[in-house]
Structure formats: C-alpha cells, structure tokens
Amino acid sequence: MADKIKIDEVYSVYFNALLKGDKYQCSQVVHALVNAQMDVRYVYEHLLKPAMYEVGNLWERNKITVATEHMASAITESIMNELYGSIAFNGSTSKSVVVTCIESELHQIGARMISDVFELNHWQVKFLGANTPNSELVNFLCLNQPAMLAISVSLYFNLPTAEELIMMVREHFQLLPIVVGGQAFSRGGHEIVAKFNGVTHLPDVISMDRYLKNLDKNGQGIIN
C-alpha cells in the first residue's frame, strides 16, 4: 500500500510530462521511485499501465491525436528499456515462455510488461511483439516447445482473433498452459477463456507475478 501511495503522489506529474512528450521528466519520476526501492512490478502496474490506459481513453474520445498516443507509447517503451538491466535473467532454467501479441494487434507494451514479470521470476522469455501472424506463432511454438504461452490483447475487437489463435494452438498443443490478458478483457471476453482447458486470464502484472510464484511453490505445470 505504501508503494501505491507514493505513486499516487507523482502520477499527475508523470502523466502531464507524458502528454507533453517530456521523456526526461518521465524517466526522472520512474527512476526516483525505483531508487527508493519500489518494486518494478508496482511501477508497471500503478504508474506506466494506468497512464497508457488513460492515454488510450483520451485517444478514443478524440481528446488527443494518434501522434500523441504514439509519442506516449514510445516514451513508455524507452523507460522500460532503461529498467531492463535490473530485470534481465541470464541464468539456466528449463522454464521457457513465448510472449506475443495477436495478429493485427499493434500495441505491445502490455506484452512487454508481462515478459519482464516472467524474467523477474527466472523464466527464459521469447518475446515476439506486436502483430504476430497466428500461423507463424504456431510454427514458432512447434520449433521451440515452450513450457507456457502468454497472449496479450489490447483492443476489444481483436478478441475473436485471440479465440482463433487459441483454437489453432490447441490443435497442436492440447496441454500447453496459456495465459491471456490485456485491456481488451476489461470489456468482456471471459467467455472465450472459459471455452478452453488450461487457459487462464490474468488481469494485471501483480496477478501474473502471483500466478508464477504459485507455480514455483506448488511445482505445478498448470493452475486450473
């Protein structure tokens, strides 16, 4: 709770700088929190993520331009790049995950956050990023045989494509644990997850982190 209070105190400063394109001030705010020993996962969940959600909502209501939305996304990804050195896992592990956005999905920040959460929990991550064709993803899974697949969906109208992807994956991997998340699920889509065995919806960075820690604690390959 203390972490959340500190972020609330600087959120407006960060968000106003983000809309102005002041990358330096945004970076300063984030690094001040991290230097004060705030967990990166809390910074992601309570600062970077809600700021980008608010940017998206402003864009949907024509309050900001596409250019401003792209600028805010670029600043956010740049800050995440700055933090990556303290996140990267370079150890030996049999746990591997493929993290991807679905076909036609151009927003990859959420998927990048989840990738970092996996690395913080000592998983080897193969991050495929935005707009990965469904067929290419399935081919990649066949070649790499990961222990888990994580799918990010940002836009509600892309949920049918996510369902199609899960169906394609299940044709080849009946038991592969799949986790899904993203802003799209804030408007529905939970019935899609319920159709499939071994598919888990995780709504945020913190729940993803707890899910992975619970896997380690119980030594399980999947949580139903």
What does this molecule look like?
The protein has 224 residues and is an alpha/beta fold. The chain is 57% helix and 11% strand. The protein contains 9 helices and 5 strands; from the N terminus they run ααααβαβαβαβαβα. Strands 2-1-3-4-5 form a 5-stranded parallel beta sheet. Helix 1 runs antiparallel to helix 2 (23-35), helix 1 (2-20) packs across helix 3 and helix 5 (109-120) packs parallel to helix 9. The relative contact order is 0.11.
Biggest sheet features: 5 strands, parallel
Tell me the Rg in angstroms: 17 Å
Tell me the fraction of residues in β-strands, as a range: 5-15%
Number of helices: 9
Query: Share of helix among residues?
Result: 55-70%
Report strand order across the widest sheet: 2-1-3-4-5
How would you state the average pLDDT, rounded? Answer: 92
Q: What would you call the structural class?
A: alpha/beta
**How far apart, in Å, are the first and last alpha carbons?**
29 Å
User: What is the H/E order?
Assistant: HHHHEHEHEHEHEH
The coarse silhouette is globular
By DSSP, the count of extended strands is 5
Low-confidence stretches: none
